[in-house]
Amino acid sequence: MFSLISFVKRVQKGSNPPQVEKKSDPIQFGILGAARIAPDALVKPARYHDDVRVVAVAARSKQRADEFGKTWNVPSTYGGDNGYQELIDDPEVHVVYNALPNALHFEWTMKALAAGKHVLCEKPIASNEEETRKMFELAESKKLILLEAWQVRFHPAIQRVKQIIDEGSLGKMVSMSSDLGVWNDVFFVKNDIRFDYSLGGGGLMDMGPYPISCMRYLASSNPTVDSAKTIIRSENIDRLIDAKLTFPPSLPATIKTDSAMEGWGPFKLFPQWIKMVLRVDCEDGAIEIRNFVLPHVWHSITVIPKKGKSWVEKAYKPKEGLGEEWWSAYRYQLEAFVDKVRGREPQAWRSAEDSIDTMRIIDTMYTMSGLPLRPTSAYTP
Ligand SMILES: NC(=O)C1=CN([C@@H]2O[C@H](COP(=O)(O)OP(=O)(O)OC[C@H]3O[C@@H](n4cnc5c(N)ncnc54)[C@H](OP(=O)(O)O)[C@@H]3O)[C@@H](O)[C@H]2O)C=CC1
Ligand SMILES: O=C1OC[C@@H](O)[C@H](O)[C@H]1O
């Protein structure tokens, strides 16, 4: 009962967060694409960050940008063929948030960096490893901040899982597994960008960054891919990927992503809505986190020692440092991004290598399962 009440309170406040007073010279963000994710990932978190203001949005159609601007209180709107570039060139915009389809991440992030803007780019950061390397090379050469928006790393829940593993009471890690699946009909729209190959789509592109980056973080190392099998949903587009990996020196892991989970029960009649589990088995026990993807909505961390009783933990707020029970993972991410732009040490960060390695692993899984890499952008900087 208590946990239901706190769930409702958390979700209510997180979805309609308070507007805080801004500093006199806040960092100003512009959004590329009136995307569905943009309100949750940036607009709402910005409301309760005193050093962030969202000042512009660009969409392919001016009308769409205006509608977004009106709904979300974003003053400058750009549209039409040159709308994205106009936003980038707007001197009021200091940071570009790239919420475009995966295949456009490279081109528009490169253009924003070239114009001297920091970039927060949605996951997966690019269509493949080659593009990712170029993006980070440019960011580094221009001394600009580029972050792949993988919010999980910034939330206290996954940090708590790592802390428990690193403390060592469960012993050495012996294996990891992740099972991530959603029911197609509920989560995706008709003609979803996620399943358009020319837009960098694919089930693994959409879901893969979560388990791959989580495991890299928990193991503090970079795996090799041993095998990957797929079930196709359309040409070049994976519904399911089932992969085996090894983290050095010999820690096995399995990753499954399924963008159209089958039902269960007689004739598989009953839908399985969602599955988002990550489990680490250790010599003296195991730890399992449910809903590691959007931990702020709800999550559970179950610790299962071989000797003694299991227990469940929640970590919506860090033991020390900034944060509230209702803060979203995106808000924690924004805190770190702003710290970095301001030259402060963030509480957590994702390195260029993390994004590059994650894309390399995705590329390898596609190749091993007989699918082509997602197409490299035709844009040449
Ligand atoms: N971190 C997270 O939790 C999440 C991240 N994402 C990531 O965010 C990105 C956007 O996802 P989502 O918001 O769901 O997608 P949407 O389809 O809602 O948004 C995509 C945006 O890209 C613009 N766009 C530009 N060119 C095209 C094109 N050729 N076809 C379709 N759209 C185009 C769209 O139009 P317009 O310019 O007119 O606005 C739209 O605003 C993806 O990279 C996805 O992986 C998505 C969900 C969660
Ligand atoms: O990033 C994401 O997180 C949640 C998923 O359901 C969604 O498809 C994806 O884009």
UniProtKB/TrEMBL annotation:
Coiled-coil stretches: none
InterPro entries membership: Gfo/Idh/MocA-like_OxRdtase_N, Gfo/Idh/MocA_domain, GFO_IDH_MocA-like_dom, NAD(P)-bd_dom_sf
Keywords annotated in UniProt: Oxidoreductase
EC class of the enzyme, as a word: oxidoreductase
Domain Gfo/Idh/MocA-like oxidoreductase N-terminal: 27-146
Enzymatic reactions: D-xylose + NADP(+) = D-xylono-1,5-lactone + NADPH + H(+)
Domain GFO/IDH/MocA-like oxidoreductase: 158-283
Assigned EC number: 1.1.1.179
Pfam short name (any one): GFO_IDH_MocA_C3
Alphabetized GO MF terms: D-xylose 1-dehydrogenase (NADP+) activity; nucleotide binding
Record-linked SUPFAM superfamilies: Glyceraldehyde-3-phosphate dehydrogenase-like, C-terminal domain, NAD(P)-binding Rossmann-fold domains
Annotated signal sequence range: none
Stored PANTHER family: OXIDOREDUCTASES (PTHR22604), TRANS-1,2-DIHYDROBENZENE-1,2-DIOL DEHYDROGENASE (PTHR22604:SF105)
Protein name, entry field: D-xylose 1-dehydrogenase (NADP(+), D-xylono-1,5-lactone-forming)
Organism classification: Eukaryota, Fungi, Dikarya, Basidiomycota, Agaricomycotina
